[in-house]
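Hi P.,

Sorry for the delay on this. The queue was packed all week, but I finally got your sequence through. Input first:
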Amino acid sequence: MTPQESARREEQRERSLANRENTILTFREWCAANSFSEATGHRIRKSGTGPRFVKLSARRIGVTVRDNVAWQESRATT
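Then the structure:
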């Protein structure tokens, strides 16, 4: 592989990672990704201790992967 090809592939990997961070999980997907029920997800959202939510439409909400990761890291214990 040429150095130019290697640099191009690395750039593609970085762009792909950035795109994944901006992916929006629906409320259901967010609950499933964190292994809790939708009822628990609603309680977390109502309490204000969850991640930032994005309003997708009048009746749908979601969470970016980046915000979910940040929220999970903020809840880590030692």
